[in-house]
Amino acid sequence: MKKSPLSKLVVLTTISVVCFLLGNCVQQLVWTGTTAQLASVPVSAASHQWVNTLQPTFPQVQIRVQPPVTNGTNIDSDLIQQWLGDRSPEVFLTFDDGPSAEATVQILDVLQRHNIKATFFVLGSNVIRLPDVVQRIVAEGHELALHSHTHPNFLTLTREQKEAEIAQSLSLLHWYFPDLRIRWFRPPYGKYDQEVVDIAHDYGMCIAMFNEISTDNTSSAGEIARVVLKSRGKIMVFHDGQWPPLGRLSEPEAQLVAGLNRSVGIAQGQGAKFMTLSDYFGHFCP
Ligand SMILES: [Zn+2]
């Protein structure tokens, strides 16, 4: 749709006035073609929430807030809450424990049908078995991220063992994809300490947690669909790998695939924007 110059002018003026009133919110406003981009250091979370309120009024002009560039910020629930709210259209589907020959492939089929991008936190031990599936994840534009090599509880490991888990799996991904940036590490069971943070940073990654953990090991397709339809402003966790591998789709995985298939298209129709973590949070971990 052609962007009306008047709409752009109204948005520009409104943003400028509100940012003046908010004081510290915006140092710089950049128009890039049809996009109004708020580029600022710092852009406050308040201005971001406000843009989410403004956007529906001017659907023909895309307004984006550029998060501040920081040095290795971890995505934790506080950061997510600061930047995203129930009104945020952004939705982040993330999948842990894969890839698997069954669930991951069927999930990729669903995402492909709806042109949705997601983030896959893979295990190195599964990557070795299924490099073709990992290749498909990357080829279809999803984000590849790290979930360790063998899925240990990092709080039970020595520093050397923690580093080995991360280094081994990361070097494996780099071997398959030498040019791919692996930006995020999610420790198994969500358990980590400062040593894990430091090691992840040493290897150029930031910790990426979530604010919506689905009970996809016990949920029906209908329950998963309902969760997805209420997923605005959420980093959601699902699971696409069984260990040891089953060699077939487990019942929870079948429910997950059916639940996603039933809901993502409807969520898109309601305005949800499915993104990879780096699409939105990349600036926090440059
Ligand atoms: Zn896991």
List keywords for this structure.
11 helices, globular, binds zinc ion, 2 domains, 15% strand, three-stranded mixed β-sheet, 42% helix, six-stranded parallel β-sheet, TIM Barrel, 286 residues, alpha/beta
List the helices and strands and how they pair.
Elements (H helix, E strand, L loop, with lengths): L4 H18 L5 E5 L2 E5 L5 H10 L7 E5 L10 H7 L6 E7 L6 H11 L5 E4 L1 H6 L1 H9 L3 E4 L12 H18 L7 E2 L8 H9 L3 E2 L4 E2 L7 H9 L4 E6 L11 H19 L3 E2 L2 H5 L5
Parallel strand pairs: 2-3, 4-5, 4-10, 4-11, 5-6, 7-8, 9-10
Antiparallel strand pairs: 1-2
The chain binds zinc ion.
Description:
The protein has 286 residues and is α/β, with parallel strands linked by helices. It has 2 domains: 5-66; 77-284, Glycoside hydrolase/deacetylase (TIM Barrel, Alpha-Beta Barrel). It contains 11 helices and 11 strands. The strands form 3 sheets. Strands 4, 5, 6, 9, 10 and 11 form a 6-stranded parallel sheet that branches. The site of zinc ion (ZN) has 5 residues, from loops.
| CATH domain class of the largest domain | Alpha Beta
Q: Number of helical segments?
A: 11
SS content category: alpha/beta
Which whole number gives the mean pLDDT?
83
The ligands found in this model are: zinc ion
Helix content: 40-55%
